[in-house]
Amino acid sequence: MYSLDKYVVIGGTPLSGQVSVSGAKNSALALIVAAALAEDECVLKNVPHESDVYTIIEILQDLGVKTDFVGSTLRVDGSCIRSYQAPYELVRKMRASFYTAGLLLARLGKAEVPLPGGCSLGSRPVDYHIKGFQAMGADVQIEHGMLKAEVTKLVGSKIYINRSSVGATVNLMIAASLAEGTTVLENAAKEPEIVDLASFLNSMGAKVKGAGTNVIKIEGVKRLRGTEYSIIPDRIEAGTLMIATAITGGDVVIKDLVPEHVRSVVLNLQEAGVKIEESLSEIRVKAPERPKAVDVETAPYPGFPTDLQQPFVALMSIAEGTSIIRENIFDRFRYVDELRRMGADIKVEHGTAIVRGVPKLTGAPVETTDLRAGAALIVASLAAEGVTEISGIEHIDRGYENIEEKLRSLGAKISRVSID
Length: 420
Ligand code: EPZ
Known about the structure:
Layout (H helix, E strand, L loop, with lengths): L4 E6 L5 E5 L4 H11 L5 E5 L5 H12 L3 E5 L2 E5 L10 H6 L5 H10 L1 E5 L12 H9 L3 E5 L2 E5 L7 E3 L5 H11 L5 E5 L5 H12 L3 E3 L5 E5 L8 E3 L4 H13 L3 E5 L7 H9 L3 E4 L3 E5 L9 E2 L11 H8 L5 E5 L9 H6 L3 E5 L2 E5 L8 E3 L3 H13 L3 E5 L2 H4 L5 H7 L3 E6 L2
Parallel strand pairs: 2-14, 3-13, 9-10, 17-18, 21-22
Antiparallel strand pairs: 1-22, 1-23, 3-5, 4-5, 6-8, 7-8, 10-12, 11-12, 14-16, 15-16, 18-20, 19-20
Helix pairs in contact: 1-2, 1-7, 4-6, 5-6, 6-7, 8-10, 8-12, 10-12
The structure holds ligand EPZ.
């Protein structure tokens, strides 16, 4: 499933044409797990083919859930879920697999799920998830790197979620939808993926109110039924394509997105001198020859997403002037060393990148160690003079569907070659 391919990119072509956005990875990961709460089959549409999606499907299959993925339609049948033990090797690969803890507690009253380890984004604990399960009556032990949790029946509770964690909000919504009584999540995450999860759960018969605000109320129900549901467009892919257009001085219509979900990106691109035209589900991005420097700070939704900080730094690396980019969510600046190899002038101090725009980047061999860093290197390579070779692209496969084909359809000279 993971490839050892690399991208070879010849930069310098302004992107032009039209491109469609795929379904949202981070929504898909939550909804696929939530689908197994139902006692019969759920049909999810607009599911992207990405390796993180394949991983969560494999984990569910290991628990006894039946799945069938054809085109962009995924059928999930949780009626035969039988194991409460999530497989170590697969769970370690991806933090979202910890959502199975909420699922298993809700369905079986018992969960043994390996704790996700550290990752390339720095320390990423799951203490908020665990505190939530405990507040709902679960007895939780951490033994041998494993969460072992048990409960006769989860009970609704009032839970304050520190730092508006997206993952904790998802996990607790999943657990609470089959609990006895009402759960109130305070300081809940407001991301569009949370609203998508709430709509999906409600279409399965759950009673979730308030998603999209910082207080979510979930009145537990006895059982959930199968449903058919289409996943929202991927706002991070949409933003990446907008930024890629901007760095190449291109003119592209990005289709099948929700403009509201990329509002912070639109505003910052406009400040950088990029012209944006919006309609109901499309955005046209018309870039100037060279963008102006803009200062950005990442924040939970509706703030500027941490998942677009990296491509935006790539864009700012060729801007006129100096931009200050502050990262408030994760430790996510290691990729700037690779951008420096391409000629960028970036200094990182205390979670802040000081990016002095240079007139041009030059192609170089570079390597990515995570998904969004990979997106930054693709964006940079599209504008760089000469050839850039990007290795480590199995990280990009985790969360961008057919990205090289999409970019090629816009005129980019990007190809995927086998490393040997
Ligand atoms: C989700 O991660 C996304 N992943 C991330 O996308 C995204 O970057 C992040 O939200 C922020 O928007 C998925 O949806 C699968 P958090 P998550 O819990 O849920 C701290 C990508 O590239 N924290 O909102 O793990 C945490 O360390 C990815 O697509 C705790 O301390 O993020 C962070 O500083 C990467 N304890 C902050 O809270 C906890 O129990 C917010 O993290 C949970 C979180």
